[in-house]
Amino acid sequence: METTDKIKGWLASGLIAAACVTAVAVYSPVSAQGVAITPSSATSRNLLVQWNDNDPERVDVVKWNPNGLDGTEANLTNSGTTGSAPCYNGDVEYFGNSWAPPDPPTGKVLVGAGTNGVRVPGPDSKVVISSVSDGCAPASAGVSIGTTYKFWQGGQAINKMRVTRTFSFESAFNRNFRPFIPRFYPISAFSQVLHPNAVGTSLITEAVGGATCPLGCTVTDWDGNNEAINWFAIHDPIGGRGVIVRRAPSTASAALWIDWDGASFTTASSVLLQAPNGGFTGDVIEQETLCFYDNSTWIPSLELPPGC
Q: For 29-45, what is each residue's pLDDT tens digit?
């Protein structure tokens, strides 16, 4: 099915609510609970996320300030490519990628090079995306994907956003894959991943960057389906800042994937979903909450900050 036909199908099937379609047609900001949502950005008091105009899934800018955005914040993410346009050998690195290891072009791209689709402001402080990576064969997986970002303006949730991504597998997908890659820049600063061990009794530090896991490493001493300890933190040990990625329990078996990428100079650690016997089929839903912190809001420990 051609990409335009797929987009028409998403709209007709109600994957994007009528309210969202109306909002994008008007192209005016949608403000709910104090969060300003436009077709290309979401801004709360403490957090700014900005998407690319040409790729509906690609996040170009992430800025956060626990004291309120004042325009001085550095961009916490970065992008990069290898190879030649337009497909760059399937290797287009950005915040929000979904890849099946190994890295493209050998691995498969679910979100990244060749991604097409639509992104619209949604109700209740959300951004709603429907996409498919089908434009960069043979790397493109051609899987229909729905992604929703949720933001908050006040209370203990002020410093977080939630990502829900649904993968619709029309045929068996027999690869492990990384459902959401939150890239943080630069790798020289965000050089650690912190996580509880699988029984929740100690906090483990994984080094990222350099010769450590240049092609990615799987950590099995972690329990992504135990609600008490199903998180990891991408950490800047000098600046005392970072982001906690907390995974919602699901039916999918998950490991922790430690990684970094040189084209974007980003840490690229993420959840790794492990294929069941017979592969992934039907809808697979992954939900992750990203909680931003610095040493004024959280000192790394087994106890998460309020609201995360």
A: 544 458 999 999 999 99
The H-or-E segment that residue 127 falls in is strand 126-133
Edge-to-edge order in the sheet of strand 115-122: 115-122, 126-133, 144-151, 160-173, 280-293, 241-247, 231-236, 192-196, 203-207
Question: What are the pLDDT digits (tens) for 211-269?
Answer: 777 789 999 899 999 999 999 999 999 999 999 999 999 999 999 999 999 999 999 99
Q: In the CATH scheme, what is the code of domain 3-293?
A: 2.70.98.90
CA atoms of 297 and 137, how far apart (whole Å): 45
- Domain locations along the chain: 3-293
What is the distance between the alpha carbons of residues 218 and 185, in angstroms, rounded to a whole number?
21
Residue with tokens 């994907």: 145
Residue 305 DSSP class: P
* Residue 249 identity: P
Q: Read off the pTM.
A: 0.90
